[in-house]
Amino acid sequence: MTKMMKVLIVDDEYLVRELLKRSVDFKSIGFEIVAEASDGAEALELVKENRVDLVIADINMPVMDGITLCEEIKKHDSTINTIILTGYADLDFAIKSIHIGVSDFLLKPINVTEVQEALLKLIDTTTNEVETKSKLIQQVINWLAGNLENKNLSLQLAADYFFVNNCHLSRKFKKEMNDTFKNYLIRLRISKAKELLDTTELKNYEIAEKIGIANPNYFSYYFKRTMNISITEYKNRYKGQENKDYGQKIVF
Q1: What is the crossing angle of helices 216-227 and 181-199, to 10°?
Q2: DSSP-derived secondary structure letter, 162
Q3: How many Å is the Cα radius of gyration of the chain?
Q4: Confidence class for position 238, pLDDT limits 50, 70, 90
């Protein structure tokens, strides 16, 4: 079942909020209205207290206007999408708001078709972003596997190589892989080390070099921490055996 995008509607006019809720079949296109607010300050508190995917806000409201609200929302969570409702008098101001990350703006009076088109466009954009992120993580994984001998592999190096922000890559990697970049890299190196232990007669320091660990002592430490068994014990007990059941299994 496709996840519904949670929507917060913000407008100081009750009738406008009702019109928007009743005229557009949000659920049929993947959206669910979870809350509404009459001003920007109230809306911001709701955003901070609840998970929201989209905020549709009027540009002119008391206490806090729509543009300021969108700016504050982006500071709180840059992944939340925002759409501005505006009249002709504020159209130029609304257009300029695009630079703060507003996803779209819609003219009042509300046109049902235009609202639906904006929502469908948002779904397409979000879907493409998710697919791109997944593709990025897969590219990073492949890049790591092909460069294990590089002792300088790091999150920053990966971010620089793929032209992305390191904090962004760190968050997305952990979200999609359910593990940190550093832990995944260690597990990947130890998995390759186990393969080399099973299939070659290389010495420990030679294997350490091939998996990008400069210090053989660090290799021994990470191997035992990951596999719950020392390299020597592994060699003595398990090398060459089929269907092994030892320590912590590494699955990729």
Answers
A1: 100
A2: T
A3: 26
A4: low
The owner of tokens 């998970």 is: 51
| H or E element in which residue 237 lies | helix 231-238
- List, for residues 30-64, the tens digit of each pLDDT value: 999 999 999 999 999 999 999 899 999 999 998 99
Q: Report the first-to-last Cα separation within the chain, whole angstroms.
A: 26
Residue-averaged pLDDT of the chain: 87
182-238 CATH pick, 1.25.40.10, 1.10.10.60, 2.40.10.10, 1.10.760.10: 1.10.10.60
Q: Is the pTM value of this prediction over 0.85?
A: no
Residues forming beta bridges with residue 81, ordered by sequence position: 54
- 116's CB contacts (< 8 A; 6+ apart) are 24, 29
Q: How far apart are alpha carbons 180 and 71 in whole angstroms?
A: 30
- Give the sheet arrangement for strand 81-86, strand by strand: 31-37, 5-10, 54-58, 81-86, 104-107
Q: State how beta strands 31-37 and 54-58 pair.
A: unpaired
Q: For the chain, what are the domain ranges?
A: 5-110, 128-178, 182-238
Q: Which residue has the higher pLDDT, 95 or 2?
A: 95
CB 34 within 8 A of CB 6: yes
Q: What is the band of 204 on the pLDDT scale with cuts at 50, 70, 90?
A: very high
**CATH number of the domain at 5-110, please?**
3.40.50.2300
